[in-house]
Amino acid sequence: MRELWQSGYMHNRVRMIVGSFLVKNLLLHWNHGARWFWDTLVDADLANNSASWQWIAGCGADAAPYFRIFNPVLQGKKFDPDGVYVRRYVPELERLPDRFIHNPWEASADVLRECGVSPGIDYPEPIVDLKASRERALAAFKSLSRAPHGACRNRDPIEESPKTARPGSR
């Protein structure tokens, strides 16, 4: 996200990793990511942006299977094994050994201290457990196949809650 904010650009691989993390690990609606990217990308294209977010969310015309969830740590290790990209955009981790550059929370307290990294102070703690959030996403997506027809309409959950439902709206 720092690359996007600083340059107005983000490599396609990173776009897919970010999209998967937001939509599947954090269970955010794809519209949130699409709006952010639309506002920050210098190469923003409405059709491409919308279709890409729908693809990663598993709901577009040519969507990725719902069970395709990119693990950001594994993707980083595969496509940025030396941590060059991470060190460029996350300089607070630049002194970490390569084996922890994509997963600093797994480094020992001694390694973190030697590298000047203070989790929760100058670098955030993980906001979700990747394995648990993947399982939660898979369960949520699988449950959609059991939902009655029309149950997944795009509606505002607060506006449609039982306390605020309009007469005749249900």
Can you describe what's shown?
The protein has 170 residues and is mainly α. Among the domains are: 2-57, no CATH class; 83-114, no CATH class. The protein has 8 helices and no strands. It is globular. The model is unreliable at 155-170 (pLDDT under 50).
In short:
This protein is mainly α and 170 residues long.
Based on helices, strands and strand pairing, what is the structural class?
A: mainly alpha
Could you report the average pLDDT, rounded to the nearest whole number? 86
Number of strands: 0
- Described by the principal axes of the CA atoms, the overall outline is globular
Taking all Cα atoms into account, the compactness measure Rg is 19 Å
**In terms of per-residue confidence, which ranges show pLDDT below 50 for 5 or more consecutive residues?**
155-170
Query: What letter string, H or E per element, gives the SSE order?
Result: HHHHHHHH
Strand content bin: under 5%
Major sheet size, sense and barrel closure:
none
Question: How many alpha or pi helices?
Answer: 8
Keywords for this structure?
170 residues, mainly alpha, 8 helices, globular
Reconstruct the topology from this structure.
Elements: H1 2-7, H2 12-25, H3 30-40, H4 46-57, H5 72-79, H6 84-89, H7 109-114, H8 130-144
Helix pairs in contact: 2-4, 3-4
